[in-house]
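Retro notes (design track)

What went well: tokenization of the new backbones is finally stable.
What didn't: we kept losing track of which sequence belonged to which structure.
Fix going forward: every design gets posted as structure first, then sequence, in one message. First example under the new rule, 209 residues:
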């Protein structure tokens, strides 16, 4: 079994365990959900239920659950891990996969903003901080980037700050590529392009910041 499949299997088992706990009435609130998953992950790590290859995944998720509590949104992170490792995302259209990547980044405490033309460029443009994990898109550019079926038809420009390498991996696992624009008139500017689906060989670890 490849590392990709091992990571997906871990996420699937955790989500199934959570679903059963909900069905049994053991989990009824977000707080109970976080507590259940944190305990499940801790037990899985202690009892070595899964390959040691996915120990970094378990350790990272466990740390998130313990430090951030409900705001860690472990269910969403596990769902991302499952979808990105199983290939399910590759069956969705370009816009869906981009939206999924953006929502996942937000769950991982990235700042995401849609900027108006006034905020995007010119004297009133929003000033970005290189030290903040942020994704910024032009509303006008986004509106023109997709057809009615959610397929990319025009280049999509983004401004990325912070741990750009980490978010580029997230985009890649959702079937998108982010390439720096050479000679761009604005700082932190990248071109986003829909790829041919998810890479099958790359491990699907959660996005760390």
């Amino acid at each position: 079994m490849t590392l990709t499949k091992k990571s997906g299997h871990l996420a699937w088992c955790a989500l199934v365990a959570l679903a059963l706990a909900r069905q049994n009435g053991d989990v009824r609130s977000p707080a109970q959900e976080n507590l259940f998953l944190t305990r499940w992950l801790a037990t899985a790590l202690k009892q070595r239920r899964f390959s040691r290859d996915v120990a970094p995944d378990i350790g990272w998720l466990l740390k998130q659950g313990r430090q951030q509590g409900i705001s860690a949104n472990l269910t969403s992170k596990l769902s991302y891990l499952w979808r990105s490792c199983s290939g399910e995302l590759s069956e969705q259209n370009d816009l869906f996969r981009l939206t999924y990547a953006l929502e996942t980044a937000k769950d991982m405490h990235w700042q995401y903003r849609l900027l108006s033309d006034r905020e995007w460029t010119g004297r009133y443009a929003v000033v970005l901080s290189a030290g903040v994990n942020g994704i910024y898109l032009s509303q006008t550019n986004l509106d023109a980037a997709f057809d009615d079926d959610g397929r990319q038809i025009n280049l999509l420009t983004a401004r990325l700050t912070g741990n750009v390498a980490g978010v580029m991996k997230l985009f890649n696992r959702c079937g998108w590529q982010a390439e720096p624009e050479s000679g761009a008139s604005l700082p932190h500017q990248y071109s986003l392009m829909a790829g041919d689906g998810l890479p099958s060989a790359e491990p699907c670890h959660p996005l760390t910041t």
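Added context from the reviewer: Residues 93-194 form one domain.
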